[in-house]
Amino acid sequence: MKKTQEKENIIELKNIKKVYNEVTAVDNFNLEVKRGEFVTFLGPSGCGKTTTLRMIAGFELPTEGEITLNGQDISKLPPYQRPINTVFQRYALFPHLNIYDNIAFGLKLKTEEVTYKNNNGKTITRKERLTKKEIKEKVRHALEIVDLEGFEKRSIDTLSGGQQQRIAIARAIVNEPEILLLDEPLGALDLKMRKEMQIELKSMHETLGITFIYVTHDQEEALTMSDKVVVMRDGMIQQIGTPEEIYNEPKNAFVADFIGESNIFNGKVTGDKKVRFCNHIFDCVDQFPVGTRVDVVVRPEDVFMRKAGQGMIDVVVDSVVFKGIHYEITVLCGETEIVIQSIKNAEVGTTIGVDIEPDGIHLIENNVTANEFDGVITKHNTVEFGDGEFECDLTQLYPGSRILDDTLVDEKGEEINIVGTEVKVYVPLNGCIEMSDDADEGGVTGNIISLIYKGDHYQYIVRTENEYDFILDDEDLWNENDFVSLVIPKEKIKLALK
Amino acid sequence: MFKFSRKQLCIPYAVFLLFFVIAPLVVIIYYAFTNGKGEFTFNNFTNFFTDSNTIGTLIYSMFISLVTTLVCLVIAYPVAYILANSKLKRKSVILMIFIMPMWINFTLRITAVKEILTAIEGNLAYYPFLNTIIGMTYDFFPFMILPLYNALEKIDRRLIEASHDLGADGVTTFIKVTFPLSMPGVISGITMVFLPVMTNYVVLDMLYNSTYIMGSLIGSYFNAYDWNNGSMISIVLLAIILVVTLFTNKLGNITGENRGATL
User: Is the domain of A28 the same as that of A153?
Assistant: First the structure.
């Protein structure tokens, strides 16, 4: 194997976009992978991570954008011409071949350029297939790497899931690919096996020196194994960074929520490295202008329990769950829940103090306080925006105007011709939009595509049919993918003329 | 007390089996090894293998079967392959079009084929062999395409992708992955066509006007009240079918697990 030479980019994805049946699966995807790196695509199912991997493998062609391997554009090459091999999600071993033939499948097709001098002293270069002996030796070596020596003659259905997984890895690495793609390879294994294979894969990566691109929805797996993690959601990259960066400095509330456990609160910057949340002003290390609205991320292990009155704030213990290595303690600060991980126990119902150190508080700027849409006035009391039509109060647009016989009139009582006017629509996040499971109740329907718990309420994103997103806060728990109807009281809809 | 158990549900079938499968078989075996006077004899057996007419018919039947099977396979495989891999939403509807002839009465269909061929060729006697193959192929095509389609449709798409991934282009992938994995379908298609064709005399009767097939040979003996020789031919045919079935089953086992690609 080649030793990691220069840290040059082996593969680059530029502005990759993939559209299936008018649905955008991946958008604006930019990534550079260095030779020998272990990169993980992490995200919930349907976030586009597998689609991206399949574009690198060549099973899908990007709708837009370019994939370059060692500086050459490979976006349009068929998979069999790419020096890239894949370990498939459910192994995809050939059931009609034994283990030897499975592993040798790629080798038997491989040609190598051989240069030699013939009798006349001419140098001839031609492509030759590997000899049987070479193939045999390579297969033996690959089996040795995955720790299944002597399994050549066995048929694949005699193997356990873990062994099949190893054969699938052997079948891919035996071809000495430049990049090895792994599509949730450990998803079908049980927990213990998965942990073992994680360590083995990591050490395989180190010894082989091949670039690994790994897809998983398991954040722990991603943090354990990777040099670089790409967090994805909804076809978009949320953050690229080392496992430490992703964990300690999540770029947005989604990443914070997805990677590890976190407490996420709505906060406001009140001074130089000072932030207010849970009715207390905490010192922190991030700096933002005073008044900035922020998402405050605090990891459960960064919250420390003190005796009542001795902490920064006093809280009431709400529940305690024993988790093996630690207790998971949920406390209430007023209405807001804080989750604490501690090796110490606490008694439910008691009041305790809580400390959060400045470096345990991570701030993410979040100035989104209202949904903003472009709308059109459809009648004298309705406006259409975000896939729906809502009743609203149009008098706010013209000072002194009023509604007379269902018609908007100005001070003099003359009708204002308003139908068809384009307006800006603002709907605040907090307490303005209500969800209902009765599809006819609200002005628009959609599916919940994301929810994030923020201590005393959930923040939801509801996506409508034509991909308008409504962000709203709600105290009740709904499920992801729930189909809901959105009710917006007419006094909550704020309008402005363009 | 009468106690109901699930096994008792088998009784109707057991009775059916006894009267319509086992009893006739016993009768046939009895006739095959006796002469007209009811005495035990092997003469019928030796007759079979010494009579050039019988042997000739056997070989000719096999030949017709073989050609029909091959033609069916060659026509059905590409169709099944394209259909199984197409992204059409109504694949089953298209498949049904191929299978629909099965819904029409067999004799009626063959009569229709006969009329069409007569219209084209003028006189059926010009190309009797060709006509027989056309008739047989038309008749048995659905039995070939169904198992093939089932087998091809079941092939995991990821295996094809894995093959491409490992460096095999389209043709190589077909030879090394798709075709071997469709073998259960191929074998069950062959079984479903080869064996019935060998004894199907209706097609031959109508398109060939001859008795050159095993089924019609048995019929001709029975018509002449020679139950003994007729029965022996049936027994030999049964033995041949048994051997062929065992052989194809074995082949199916070698090529991979049984993927249930039978009808």
Answer: yes
